[in-house]
Structures are given as C-alpha cells and as structure tokens.
Amino acid sequence: MMMEQINESKTYIEEQLSTTKPDIGLILGSGLGILADEIENPKVIPYADIPHFPTSTVSGHKGQLVIGTLQGQHVIAMQGRFHYYEGYSMQQVTFPVRVMKALGVEQLLVTNAAGGINESFNPGDLMLISDHINMMGDNPLIGPNVDELGPRFPDMSQAYSNELMKVAKSCAQEINLNLQEGVYVGNTGPTYETGSEIKLLRTLGGDAVGMSTVPEVIVANHAGMKVLGISCISNMAAGILDQPLSHDEVIETTEKVREDFIKLVKNVIKKMA
Ligand code: HPA
C-alpha cells in the first residue's frame, strides 16, 4: 500500500522531468520558500497534481515542488510543507520525504522558522540544528515497519549529519555569517507555547522551538538519508520578551533574513558532495 503510493508519486514526478534526477532535497519552511526562486531551469509541480500528495493550507506556504539545478547541483525543493497541526497524519506529513528518497535523494536540507528559547539568540539569527527533541507525542514510524524503507528501530544518534554540520559551519565562516547552533524542539502547535512551557523546554536542553521538521527528519533517518537542518529564529519564544507572538512577525523576520539565508544555503549546497 505505502510502497505503491510512493512509487506512483515517484513515477508521476519522473514523467515531468526531462533532466537528471535530483540528488539533494530541500524542505523550505515558513517564509523561506523564496529560495526555490533561485533554482535554475525549474520544473514546477503543484502538490495537487501529484498522486497521493496532501495539499498545504497555511498562508506563507506555497504548495509545490521545484526541481532543477542550484549551484550546479540537482535539487528538488518543497516550497511549502505539510504540518501535523493541519490535521495530516505523521505518515502524510512525511510522505514527500519518502518520495524524494525513491527519486534518488540521499541528502536532505530541512529549514524552518522557529522561536528562540536560548536567550543569547536574537530574532533574525540563523541556527544550525545539531539535534532535536520530539515533543509531538507521535512518531511517523509507528505501525508496521516497511522493511524496504528502513529498519524497525532506526538509529537517531546522528540525526543531523556531523559531516554536513561541518560543511555548514565552514560555509558560514566563509561568508562572515554568525551561525548559531542548537537543539530544535518539535511541538505540535498550532498554539505558540506558554511562558512556562518555554521555561520547561529550556531546562530540557532546547534552544529553539517550532511546529515541524521532527517528523521529516525521523523519516529521512529511517531511509538512511543524511540530514542538515537550519532554523531561522523568527521571534523569541513566549515569556522572553513582554509581547505577544504572531504569525505575521514570523513571516516578517524570515523576509528580513532572506538574503543571509539564501547566501548560506546556496554556499552549503555548492559544497555538498
Ligand atoms: N513557537 C513555535 N513555533 C514557532 C515559533 C514559536 O515561537 N516561531 C516560529 N515557529
């Protein structure tokens, strides 16, 4: 069932492509979809056209795949992702990652907008994700394991590839960008956190918090893909500043850092093997 759906999506996408297969997958978070506009000779495929793909609903998220070249690399980008809080199952949220893997993608770059828990961060900072904490109370791998896709009990000890982290750090240095580093906490949303929840997450070792990424990274690890994660700290998390959080603020900040973000990601992609 699952394999059939993956293969039907894969076949449909391959039929649209005249060029070589993609090697690097990109998942572009809230306000960060602009990166897909940098892709050369793009083939754009709306999610709605792809068999078995869910369709995204949040403003600030487009719903399409953009496939082409970036810095000479063959990439496939998700301009807009699926969120658990939209009501999709964990399997639906992560379905595109499985399709990417079926298409031949071995390295996945995931991005998101996140609230800063670490008080030394500032809105507009970019943070290299060194690890995550799954606080979503669910896991996309619950259920019978599909052995063709990966092992029953996947290792997550290097969920974010050390090798790719090194590449990202050296790229940041090269362009004089102060790249923060830390642990991403995945919550379900759609509510932002309370001040007390943020205090709790800080004592647990979290540096940033968001409502995505964790499911996709779990499935990518299951599939044996190498993952690199970058968060845009779009706001300080609840309770740090004396002001309410809003989605508009998140989008505004991501727009402000778009240049740094594009520069960093392009540089990283150029250096990915
Ligand atoms: N909390 C959760 N998710 C988020 C935040 C936040 O503060 N900012 C952007 N996504």
From TrEMBL:
InterPro entries: Nucleoside_phosphorylase_d, Nucleoside_phosphorylase_sf, Pur_Nuc_Pase_Ino/Guo-sp, Purine_phosphorylase, Purine_phosphorylase-2_CS
GO biological process: nucleoside metabolic process
Assigned EC number: 2.4.2.1
GO cellular component entries: cytoplasm
Catalysed reactions, as listed in the record: a purine 2'-deoxy-D-ribonucleoside + phosphate = a purine nucleobase + 2-deoxy-alpha-D-ribose 1-phosphate
Superkingdom, natural source: Bacteria
Limits of the Nucleoside phosphorylase domain: 23-270
NCBIfam families: PNPH, PNPH-PUNA-XAPA, PRK08202.1
The protein's role, per its UniProt record: The purine nucleoside phosphorylases catalyze the phosphorolytic breakdown of the N-glycosidic bond in the beta-(deoxy)ribonucleoside molecules, with the formation of the corresponding free purine bases and pentose-1-phosphate. Cleaves guanosine, inosine, 2'-deoxyguanosine and 2'-deoxyinosine.
Protein's name in the database: Purine nucleoside phosphorylase
